[in-house]
Design goal:
Length: 190
């Protein structure tokens, strides 16, 4: 299965800090798709990741997926059914807990601009996020794999950072660690 097999509306799922936002930006550039970072829709810009009200987030989410060409990153399982109903393909990323924690700390301490960043906000280390990565994500891995396996759409599972790097190379998306290439301006609300 190749990226072209996934069509013009692609969902990218996976644990926190597995590379979803960077992959979304790379695919959007390469295929002319609208990048949609669900974290940017869920959280208010110019805040320290303050969540929007649930209904407001749902309205923004549903408006984004009504577009004809997009690549969406994020899980937000409550809204997954309507996203999958519109999607033409799915990519699932995976990364070990240690890799996710390392990436979280790196982005919080060193990356000032990154794909999927919240406009006007600075990432910072939060114990709640560390707990989410170290405890919640570990517990959810089996459920997330079962969800992915049950999806009846063209799909690709990238089960390691090496698999993700290989995907970047074979699909002509540039080097997966090229932060300059992954930079995109924050998504504006629909």
């Amino acid at each position: 299965m190749t990226l072209d097999d996934l069509g013009p509306r692609i969902c990218i799922m996976g644990p926190s800090n597995s590379g979803k936002s960077s992959l979304t930006a790379a695919i959007a550039r390469a295929r002319g798709l609208v990048p949609v970072h669900l974290d940017q829709l869920r959280h208010l810009p110019q805040t320290d990741w303050q969540e929007r009200p649930d209904e407001e987030f749902k309205v923004l989410h549903d408006a984004a997926i009504l577009q004809e060409r997009w690549v969406v990153d994020g899980n937000y399982s409550r809204l997954l059914p309507q996203r999958l109903a519109r999607a033409t393909g799915v990519i699932q990323l995976d990364a070990s807990t240690l890799t996710s924690l390392f990436r979280y700390l790196r982005r919080s301490w060193f990356e000032r601009e990154r794909a999927g960043a919240l406009e006007g906000s600075q990432d910072s280390v939060k114990w709640g996020m560390i707990r989410h990565i170290a405890v919640t994500t570990r517990k959810n891995r089996q459920r997330n794999r079962a969800t992915f396996d049950a999806i009846d759409l063209p799909k690709i599972r990238l089960a390691s950072p090496e698999g993700l790097a290989h995907f970047y190379r074979t699909e002509g998306l540039g080097h997966h660690r090229d932060r300059a290439a992954a930079k995109v301006s924050p998504q504006k609300e629909p």
